[in-house]
Amino acid sequence: MKVVSLLPDFGWPAFQGAARALYAMVVEQHIDAITIDLRAVQRAFPNGVVPLVVLLNQYRKNLGVHFGAMLPDSTDVARIFDTQNWAAHLFPDHGFPLTNRPSALHRFSETTVNELINGHIRDALGQASYAQGVLQAFEWALNEIAGNALVHSGAPEAWMEVVVQRSARRMAIVVADGGLGIPETIRHAFPDKAPRDEDAIALALQEGITSKPDFGQGKGLTGTLAIVKANDGGRLSVHSAGGVVEWRDARLSIRPEFPPFQGTMVDIQLSIEQPIDIETALWGQGPVFPFNEALFGRETPLGVMRFVLAREASGFGNRLTGQQVRLKIENLLTSAPDHVLEVDFAGVELIASSFADEVFGKLALSLGFVGFSSRLRLIRLNKFCRGIIDDVVKSRIVQAHGNGAHGK
């Protein structure tokens, strides 16, 4: 059995090396049994692993290639391949388990894409604090790119991974499919405009260019590029067939690639601490609702978001859970500075004082009494929960006045 060994740092450049080795073995030498050796891998990234998943899946399905697996020697790295679903998707016939964690790699189809995106949104809300407009941009781009992968590729499924890198203050979004590829679909619609693969991708990034006008207006890739340009430090790479178009360091590059990637991968990198003026980026056509109407705005009056507490946490007895809930609320308030947020206590019978202080006490401290009263509306809470919250909010306000009086 032939072996392809992966490099210690496995991102897109290392994937290209592995892809060239696989191309030589599978396409040129017609080898049908290959071991993927991950033992030396010390760091791996979605923009390396996800396209490898797509490539192995194509060789497996189309050419009957069998892939053996040698997992990383590092216990920590091997655990990441397990918990991120990388091992399960790379080697589906080896019995590696799949996890439902939103931040892991997931395969999606038309019937599962909306649920998956909503899971990513809920997960991202509790991962970090975001600058104004970042969450709306994230939601918009994720919906558009995932939709493109299903509508334009001709493939029944695609893969998606979203990673919030808290220490680096960045968010990575990778969506890939093994379909027709952008160049083929663009050339079919515009046969005289894009002789090279990279030219076809560049054309697809122009506003109004779409291979299927019945399905859309050609704004998905264009708007995503505009969002990335509006985010200081944002990056975008679109790899398809034998070309790549990349925005990086405030510069657009268009170049060929070999071997061809049979499908499309879109890799989006956003700085979560740099604001995005999404309405300006999207030609004055930003989302009417500030952030995910399906999750936080359904059946609410204009100017109101609703946060259903029982949906966002499984328990209400400790500060760790409270920290994540407070972070979600703060992100929603940031995403819609002119909206009121209703916190719905339906189904919540009991909260601990530590949880209430971590969420509502600290929100009162950061927003101030007027801000807390005007921006938050607590509904459907019982007498016990109201008493606990009143107590911690009063204590925090007294604390704030006391610190101010002493010049702290």
Architecture overview:
The chain is α/β, with parallel strands linked by helices and 408 residues long. The protein has three domains: 98 residues, Transcription Regulator spoIIAA (2-Layer Sandwich), CATH 3.30.750; 189 residues, 2-Layer Sandwich (Heat Shock Protein 90), CATH 3.30.565; 107 residues, Transcription Regulator spoIIAA, CATH 3.30.750. Helices cover 45% and strands 21% of the residues. The strands form four sheets. A five-stranded antiparallel β-sheet has the order 6-7-8-10-9, with helices on both faces. Helix 5 runs antiparallel to helix 6 and helix 6 runs antiparallel to helix 9. It is globular. The chain starts with a strand and ends with a helix. About 1% of the residues have low confidence.
CA-atom Rg in angstroms: 24 Å
Order of SSEs:
EEHEEHEHHEHHEEHHHEEHHEHHEHEH
Count of DSSP E strands? 13
Please report the number of helical segments.
15
CATH-assigned fold name of the largest domain? Heat Shock Protein 90
The separation of the N and C termini measures 69 Å
Would you state the CATH class of the largest domain?
Answer: Alpha Beta
Main sheet attributes: strand count, strand direction, barrel closure: 5 strands, antiparallel
Q: State the strand order across the main sheet.
A: 6-7-8-10-9
The CATH architecture of the largest domain is: 2-Layer Sandwich
SSE class: alpha/beta
The proportion of residues in beta strands is 15-25%
